[in-house]
């Protein structure tokens, strides 16, 4: 039987920011690893966007060699403690695992996390590289989310001097400012970013490329190629009356204030975030679940998810929906906000919602929500958090002449080479695909690093 990872009790965890899922014990990890059939044609590997040799690392775990199991994972994945926690394994490796056909797949994600945590606890020797060994040239990486971190790590391992430029004061992208502490402790992000530094990656924070320095200037100062991994961090809004009232946040602002500025440690950190008794979060993706669960932990009495479709269409990971339910988040499904109302001082008081029914499937294949006439209802609220998606971070795009964008405003790349319309400038992650996943961004960073290596090698060969 598949091992269940122990978790903090819901009644306790909704009052703290400590990690919810506690990780396998050594006994559980061994029992779970032994379930793997070590298939000759491991379909799980095909489901992994960075192609970790899953059966091999599991075999090493069974053999009692967690250090070697971790080294095997690290051949492909420089951020295993992060991926083991936040990857949607149920749609990737575990979806393909043969054991899932008749029963439950191997808990590959939990085993990956186990190996990474074992390495951290036992101070396993991480790959390292002195800066002097970077002989192949200098590459600039813009944005330090999973796409940029992976591109920089892989370039360093290939012998390049990679410099990460990050506009915020701490590296990590969404891993740092989006995903909350109770799902991904920042100590884990610090540790994995620290390992990158051991590879010789230089990290320059507080540099907004496009304003502080342009891409042209990066080339002029000796960088031979540039990778852009600036993500999709620009929040979308609902575009309904009342959205400018006090008490309305984008999920992006709310989570950034809590995560990056440590609002949850007020008054130790002097950055409070105002949260009322009744909070409504609009949307039903991972971002919405994170915002709702964060609001609970900040002391809200009721937190509702307001979503215009039904449970079957909710885009968040199943595990996170269940975690939110266990913690007491209320789900108001088939409900769409149409207007926000406030008092004479401009403070939010009420969300007016309309009930919806499901009609025919739309372009996304999901059944379209259709308003039910005359079904408006009032929901008293002090805080509304809007989590209905994000668009591309625009600053660098606007400041860079000749950078081709697609119709949705994301960077266009050659899918084979990841090169943009500007020679020597590559891109990957959410800034190319739109909001996606950590591992998809990492896969893009890897692909781009290989393409940059080929591009620079060819250039040198041609003597340019
Ligand atoms: C709240 C939340 C929860 C999520 N949960 C999950 C999950 O559980 N599992 C999962 O797989 N995915 C999850 N995702 C999605 C995932 O985090 C993203 O798909 C992924 O982080 C994209 O990586 P990226 O490297 O492309 O960009 P980002 O992580 O967005 O990083 C981009 C970085 O570039 C920086 N930047 C932007 N412009 C500039 C500039 N001009 N100069 C310098 N730096 C710049 C930004 O500050 C940022 O640090 C979640 C997203 C959010 C918002
Ligand atoms: S498909 Fe499942 S059982 Fe087969 S090697 Fe992969 S994890 Fe093991």
From TrEMBL:
Keyword Oxidoreductase: yes
Keywords, comma-separated and alphabetical: Oxidoreductase
A Pfam family the protein falls into: Fer4_20
Enzyme nomenclature, EC number: 1.4.1.13
SUPFAM superfamilies named among the record's database cross-references: alpha-helical ferredoxin, Nucleotide-binding domain
InterPro entries referenced in this protein's UniProt entry, alphabetically: DPD_II (IPR028261), FAD/NAD-bd_sf (IPR036188), FAD/NAD-binding_dom (IPR023753), Helical_ferredxn (IPR009051), SudA-like (IPR006004)
Molecular function GO labels: glutamate synthase (NADPH) activity; iron-sulfur cluster binding
Domain FAD/NAD(P)-binding, chain residue ranges per copy: 138-445
KW Isomerase (keyword) present: no
Domain Dihydroprymidine dehydrogenase: 13-123
Classification via PANTHER family: GLUTAMATE SYNTHASE [NADPH] SMALL CHAIN, GLUTAMATE SYNTHASE [NADPH] SMALL CHAIN-RELATED
The protein, known as: NADPH-dependent glutamate synthase
Species, as recorded: Capillibacterium thermochitinicola
Underlying gene: gltA
């Amino acid at each position: 039987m598949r091992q269940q990872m122990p978790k903090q009790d819901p009644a306790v965890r909704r009052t703290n920011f400590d990690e919810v899922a506690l990780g396998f014990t050594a006994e559980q990890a061994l029992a779970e690893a032994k379930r793997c059939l070590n298939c000759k044609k491991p379909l799980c590997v095909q489901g992994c966007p960075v192609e970790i040799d899953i059966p091999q690392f599991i075999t090493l775990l069974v053999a009692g060699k967690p250090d070697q199991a971790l080294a095997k994972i690290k051949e492909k994945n420089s951020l295993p403690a992060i991926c083991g926690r936040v990857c949607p394994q149920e749609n990737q490796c575990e979806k393909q695992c043969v054991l899932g056909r008749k029963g439950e797949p191997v808990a590959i994600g939990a085993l990956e996390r186990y190996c990474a945590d074992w390495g951290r606890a036992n101070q396993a020797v991480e790959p390292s590289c002195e800066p002097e060994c970077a002989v192949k040239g200098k590459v600039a990486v813009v944005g330090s989310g999973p796409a940029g971190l992976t591109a920089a790590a892989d370039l360093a391992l290939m012998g390049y001097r990679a410099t990460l430029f990050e506009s915020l004061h701490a590296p990590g992208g969404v891993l740092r400012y989006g995903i909350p502490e109770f799902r991904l402790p920042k100590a884990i992000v610090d540790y994995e970013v620290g390992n990158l530094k051991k590879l010789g990656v230089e990290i320059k924070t507080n540099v907004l490329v496009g304003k502080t320095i342009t891409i042209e200037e990066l080339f002029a100062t000796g960088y031979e190629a540039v990778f852009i991994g600036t993500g999709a961090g620009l929040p979308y809004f609902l575009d309904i009356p009342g959205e400018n009232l006090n008490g309305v946040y984008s999920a992006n602002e709310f989570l950034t204030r809590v995560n990056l500025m440590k609002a949850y440690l007020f008054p130790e950190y002097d950055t409070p975030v105002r949260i009322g008794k009744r909070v409504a979060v609009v949307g039903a993706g991972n971002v919405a679940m994170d915002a709702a669960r964060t609001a609970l932990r900040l002391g809200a009495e009721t937190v509702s998810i307001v979503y215009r479709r039904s449970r079957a269409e909710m885009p968040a990971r199943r595990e996170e929906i269940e975690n939110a339910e266990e913690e007491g988040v209320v789900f108001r499904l088939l409900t769409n906000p149409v207007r926000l109302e406030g008092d004479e001082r401009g403070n939010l008081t009420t969300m007016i919602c309309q009930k919806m029914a499901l009609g025919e499937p739309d372009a996304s294949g999901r059944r379209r929500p259709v308003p039910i006439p005359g079904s408006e209802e009032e929901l008293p609220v002090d805080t509304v958090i809007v989590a209905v998606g994000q668009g591309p971070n625009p600053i660098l795009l606007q400041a860079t002449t000749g950078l081709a964008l697609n119709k949705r405003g994301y960077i266009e790349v050659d899918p084979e080479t990841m090169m943009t319309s500007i020679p020597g400038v590559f891109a990957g992650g959410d800034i190319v695909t739109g909001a996606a996943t950590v591992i998809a961004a990492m896969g893009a960073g890897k692909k781009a690093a290989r393409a940059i290596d080929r591009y620079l090698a060819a250039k040198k060969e041609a003597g340019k």
